[in-house]
Amino acid sequence: MCDELDYDDVCCGLKVGQKVPDFKIDIYDPVKKDFGEISLEALKNEGKWTVLVFYPADFTFVCATEFSALAGLYDDFKKCGAEVITVSTDTKFTHLAWHKDEKSLEGVKYPMGADRNTALSRLFGVYDECSGLDLRGSFIISPDGTLLNAEINFYNLGRNMDELLRKVKANIYLSKHGAEACPAKWKAEGDKTLKPGADLVGKVAEALK
């Protein structure tokens, strides 16, 4: 029973800083209006950042608001060299039907992944054995396959997709400026960063003026 789980045996998924194993997943492609497949290996070969957005289920409510927000920013993700893939345990056929019927998804152009065997969801630690659904997990993978960011929300809390885009931009900046750090309110290249060192200790406020 779900309330009798031994939490010592529960897999917590990949951890930030680890390499992500190559994976393939079936998708519904809203642009081509057809089914296909996408793989991490192919995205890495193209030098792309990979953004995985797990969600509970098609034809649900908070998910529709997240999809709409993500659709409005998808071109910005693409300009950053990132591919966004939404993932649930629904079939690719259900993805097609939801995209067709839900007006909130009219602007969706990103691939919608179908993780029917839950392998990818389990790998990232978002699969909920009790419900058979995915929690709201967001993960950013670098072009070399390293997991750099992970966020998991419960079912009833929608995510801020602007913050997800900010994290992608910050990771791209830091990949080119490894000696720097992006503070909490950093939004885009040109904003002030921090350069950790002895001179900065106790002087963060002054450095950001």
Write a structural description:
With 209 residues, this protein is of the alpha+beta class. Helices cover 28% and strands 22% of the residues. The chain contains 6 helices and 9 strands, in the order ββαβαβαβαββββαα. It has helices at residues 40-45, 62-79, 92-101, 119-123, 161-176, 204-207, and strands spanning 24-29, 34-39, 49-54, 82-88, 112-114, 127-128, 133-134, 136-141, 147-153. Strands 2-1-5-4-3-8-9 form a 7-stranded mixed β-sheet. Strands 6-7 form a two-stranded antiparallel ribbon. It is elongated and about 55 Å long. Its EC number is 1.11.1.26. This is Alkyl hydroperoxide reductase C. InterPro entries: AhpC/TSA (IPR000866), Peroxiredoxin (IPR050217), Peroxiredoxin_AhpC-typ (IPR024706), Thioredoxin-like_sf (IPR036249), Thioredoxin_domain (IPR013766).
Task: Write a brief structural summary.
Helices cover 28% and strands 22% of the residues.
